[in-house]
């Protein structure tokens, strides 16, 4: 089993929740949490739209699609958790090692489109909820959703357990609201039971085609691709003993977490579909695709309590889903393309990209177009699923990398059957949709010139993603963490100082920083070398994370420390986590440092805005001199 892979996922919270020295239910409770964050994606406004559309159009007939989707989700999420636990990698990082850079770039683009589609659903849901409760125009509600970035960043800074607590409270509100509504609408229990019997989606008539479209939307809304990336990272927030017994325990308890959380999500989704079937289909309202129409009909049929609960639950689901979507976006960006930017900017970019189509739809198609846009966003999620599911199955089947924890034949067969089902349904939908476009226009040239080549290109990429791990079964490209590998240090000149801290980023600037530090303190001074793990995981999970990047950072830092000691200097290494400035300031205070040497990246104003400035922040946080070493230009 090879764990020499890539950087730590969500580094500042990696391994921040301890599970050691706990037994019984206390140990189970320590592991509970990651799947609840994942399950939020199974209860977002996009699910509402597909469930309401399915329930109002076909009654209880699509409950079986929800059930099958949930079973597939349970299987795939357990594989994602297994990958994160055993290899210490999230799905994006594993893909970065297994596929060429060019392929990873397009995998990132497709995953980013899926995240924007998901965020689009949250925007629309939040805006509709605000309108229903406070009569706020949708265009203003959509615009106001950009402010939830503040809440998200606040919760992230409070730590992983606080974030999980907020999410679980939102889930509780959603679940309680629908539990009450189930008593109000009084569904037909026998018809609900019949809804678990599978039906035929491939008859070819117009009704079956519409049912297939909504069914694929349900699958996309349930088995969300970004949740696979998210779950493989979130399980790394738990500290485990990296032994065979430690892996077994972590896999077992995370399976409990996944089963409980996703089954709760299934009951909420089933409740929404049953609510739509009982309230609308049974009363002759067969095409309620709009969430706001559902609100009005609930008010008309059942009075004021049901629609109010409906709107409150809608806002809660949208707000919680926004947070998990942002986490997934950072994991995907760091994993696939090694790009790490400030969380607030990452959040803002995603939200802006999602707001644009929502505003465009309201302005040009009116508020009634938002329901169709919601369902379309979930179909887009389903279309991206293959690019996450196929690599996940390959990675968890690899006995060389996973050792004894590679999935067995039965699990592998079920996983591949799920992948084939998803890809086949998507292929059929795309084929029929292109056919409708060709038949519905007198000049289909643009379809053949633009749409068809794009579809063919995506199909070729999917085939490559499937075939490459088979052709290069045990081949992983060299892993590169965002900050690079430690450089060798030669003999250094020295002058005197007392206790000097030197910030290290494993770049070519390190040698110059160390040289200037030695010039200040000579061999009489003590030196503390500080490196900060600043991945998304470190920002959210806390200071005890021990994923691959952290282990690599320890090793790299130890090389520097050993080199200095061999040269006759007194040196030690310190690893910080999360926000670089805060972590450096804390170490400086704890170690009683009286002089700091820091390297400057020499960023221009725009890069400082994107990547953040550490030197200026540290200057304002410490009461000791700071020497800034700017790299020499070539």
From TrEMBL:
Membrane as UniProt keyword: yes
Membrane-related topology note: Multi-pass membrane protein
Any one GO BP annotation for this protein: iron ion transmembrane transport
Gene Ontology MF terms: cadmium ion transmembrane transporter activity; manganese ion transmembrane transporter activity; metal ion binding; symporter activity
TM region positions: 62-85, 105-128, 134-154, 166-185, 211-230, 251-281, 301-327, 348-366, 372-393, 405-425, 445-467
UniProt keyword Nucleotidyltransferase, yes or no: no
Chief location of this protein within or outside the cell: membrane
Keywords: Cell membrane, Ion transport, Membrane, Symport, Transmembrane, Transmembrane helix, Transport
Pfam families given in the database record: Nramp, Usp
InterPro entries registered for this protein in UniProt: NRAMP_fam (IPR001046), Rossmann-like_a/b/a_fold (IPR014729), UspA (IPR006016)
Superkingdom of origin: Bacteria
All copies of domain UspA, residue ranges: 497-630
Gene3D superfamilies: HUPs (3.40.50.620)
GO cellular component: plasma membrane
Compartments it resides in: Cell membrane; Membrane
NCBIfam families: nramp, Nramp_1, PRK00701.1
Family to which the UniProt record says this protein belongs: Belongs to the NRAMP family.
Chain's role: H(+)-stimulated, divalent metal cation uptake system.
Protein name as catalogued: Divalent metal cation transporter MntH
Gene name in the database record: mntH
